[in-house]
Write a structure and sequence with these properties.
By secondary structure, the protein is an alpha/beta fold. The chain is built from 13 helices and 22 strands. The radius of gyration is 24 Å and the shape is globular.
């Protein structure tokens, strides 16, 4: 059995694993990364963020073509099959894999294919190759990600029943689709499929879609989903799913039954911690396969860290990359360590949503004297030019100090726009103020101009 010695061994090559490996090797550590898939990138590249967002972009282009009067004058509306639209996503995946494989080679990180299994606190056995290898390490970082949670009483082998990974293998375009779960994944796919002309039933176990969002933003999303033909059912609990050759029937505990051509389960994820040999090092994941860590991403074993989806919240690729970098910063004792808790949300529905900071509900409960400044996209010249008039920017600020407390955006380019507000919010002391937007000249016409409009709107509310 071959033996190798490393300073740091990273398990998983998704965003968190990549961030950890790159930061560790830049600090002179000898690093290996273990990946059980044939290519790097993790779930983010192959089944999650990249394919779903590439898919969304293509669908959004189709919607633009079919709704823009200039294009309608050229010809009739065009409808594309789900597999054909997915082909564009596959191209992006290939580019991402090539790029990231190059990162490891250029930085002399050993990329080892196989399944990692802890032998003890300083040894990992890599299984799956023709000959097993043992890696000795000083520190290990678990970055194995997550997979869709699959209830045991649903037959996911049925050709009409999918989860958020297997939906990317859908070989046809269903006329009707049931999506159970109205979280980020469920809402995004509801937008994507309704954009392709599929009749979607979105079943929500809660009372609101994306309840962690600002109420006004959540309500706006609900309105636009319904406006695009999505039937949203709130406060419904799953009882059973039965598939046959002609479709799928979802039975709910309320007594309702819904039938469609296909079914997508989008309710929760499970950490990839099984078969890692965690028993051998005294670690036990929770019921969802997630590992507990401290504020330095250390597990209960001093020299073993965990980052990314495998530790739970916020389960975002953006945060995962920074968590991985921070774990390596803790190991190398550099000055850039931080516990990642200032995370903007980026939800790629159609239109998209992004926010950072406090919501109105949180500020009201905390009895913070805040006020609101708003800019509606329909009033911005750039949005009128692009035809993307749906949406708004909302700034929450302290009435007395004018400190920015929250930024909430709904509409085209929301995930880009939010970072301007985030940058000001992160300034120290008096530099974080509504006055920045009032006293700064923005390019015209731009979407960023929404900050000036919203700030002036908020200023007019102060008395």
């Amino acid at each position: 059995m071959a033996e190798h010695h490393y300073d740091v061994v990273v398990i998983g090559s998704g965003p968190s694993g990549e961030g950890a490996a790159m930061n560790a090797t830049k600090h002179g550590k000898r690093v290996a990364i273990i990946e059980d898939k044939p290519t790097v990138g993790g779930n983010c590249t192959h089944w999650g963020t990249i394919p779903s967002k590439a898919l969304r972009h293509s669908v959004k282009q189709i919607i633009t073509f079919n709704t823009n009067q200039m294009f309608r004058d050229i010809g009739e509306p065009r409808w594309f099959s789900f597999p054909r639209v997915l082909q564009n996503a596959q191209k992006v995946i290939g580019k991402q894999v090539k790029l990231r494989t190059g990162f490891y080679a250029r930085n002399r990180i050993d990329l080892i294919n196989g399944r990692a299994h802890f032998v003890d606190n300083n040894r990992i056995e890599v299984r799956g190759n023709k000959s097993a290898e043992t890696l000795y390490f000083k520190q290990a970082i678990i970055a194995t990600g997550s997979r869709p949670y699959m209830p045991p009483d649903i037959d996911f082998r049925h050709h009409r029943i999918y989860n958020s990974d297997t939906i990317l293998n859908l070989s046809h375009t269903p006329r009707t689709l049931i999506i159970f779960g109205a979280g980020v994944i469920g809402s995004e796919y509801a937008s994507i499929f309704s954009g392709l002309g599929v009749k979607v039933d979105l079943i929500n176990p809660g009372s609101r879609i994306l309840s962690f969002l600002d109420d006004e933003i959540s309500d706006a999303l609900s309105y636009h989903l319904r406006n695009n033909g999505v039937l949203v059912r709130h406060n419904e609990e799953f009882e059973s799913v039965k598939g046959d050759d002609h479709g799928v029937v979802l039975s709910l505990k309320s007594g309702k039954k819904v039938r469609a051509d296909a079914f997508l389960w989008a309710a929760g994820r499970t950490g990839n911690t099984d078969n890692l040999g965690l028993d051998n090092i005294g670690l036990e994941p929770n019921g969802r396969g997630q590992l507990a860590v401290d504020k330095h991403y250390r597990t209960g074993v001093e020299n073993i860290y965990a980052v990314g989806d495998v530790i739970g919240w916020p389960s975002l690729a953006s945060a995962a990359y920074d968590q991985g970098r921070s774990a390596a910063s803790d190991i190398t004792h550099d000055e850039y360590f931080r516990f990642v808790d200032d995370v903007p949300t980026g939800i790629y529905t159609i239109p998209e949503i992004s926010s950072v900071g406090k919501t109105e509900e949180e500020l009201t409960q905390a009895r913070v004297p805040y006020d609101v400044g708003k800019a509606f996209f329909k009033d911005l010249a750039r949005a009128q030019i692009t035809g993307e008039a749906v949406g708004m920017l909302k700034i929450l600020f302290h009435r007395e100090t004018r400190q920015i407390l929250g930024i909430h955006c709904f509409g085209d380019q929301a995930a880009e726009i939010v970072h301007i507000g985030q940058a000001i919010m992160n300034q120290e002391g008096e530099a974080n103020t509504l006055d920045y937007f009032i006293n700064t000249t923005f390019n015209y016409p731009t979407m960023a101009e929404a900050y000036r409009v919203a700030a002036l709107n908020g200023l007019n509310r102060i008395f």
